[in-house]
Amino acid sequence: MSEWIIDVIVQWGYPGIFLLMVAENVFPPIPSELIMPFAGYVAARGDLSVAGVLIAGTIGSLAGTSAWYAAARLLGLDRFTRLCNRLGRVATIQEDDIDMAARWFERYGPLAVFVGRLIPAIRTLISVPAGLAAMPLSRFLAISTAGTLIWTGILTTAGFVLHENYESVEGWVDPVSTAIVVLAVLIYIYRFVTWKPIKDIG
Prior knowledge:
Blueprint: H1 2-12, H2 14-26, H3 32-44, H4 50-87, H5 95-116, H6 127-132, H7 137-162, H8 168-194
């Protein structure tokens, strides 16, 4: 995959960076940890500008994450709750859990979106609760832009400074992403095994 990403950036430049970052947010296995550092390296060679790389990467990332926000917004909290209730043990989420999460997000949502855009493996998923909670689109985009610009800026700067060693950035970030995914899977398994309908508790 890394060679394909490099070829897209080399051949398409800014549009390639934009499309890759859209895809990275829609299909998380495509790593921004490789896209932006290589783009920063290309900028260091003088083939692209740092400003252009940052703009293309940020706008692409926002376009991709907004698709998840829009899907969750269309689904809505009520339909999501009914879906989880029907799925039961498979969802491992019940109405009380959703109500509690909704109250938490209502209070801390803006901070959660901002910080979430800076955390590998969470960056895309944070758009879903924002959409379910019907966070205003203008607020979601403003907060997401701030977090995304910081993330793409860090990765681009790393690639610019490291030059040919830009791939080492992916090696630093990958363990964090893997740890978060493993933790999420373990939590899901625990909730699946210990799940009980609310009416059966007590």
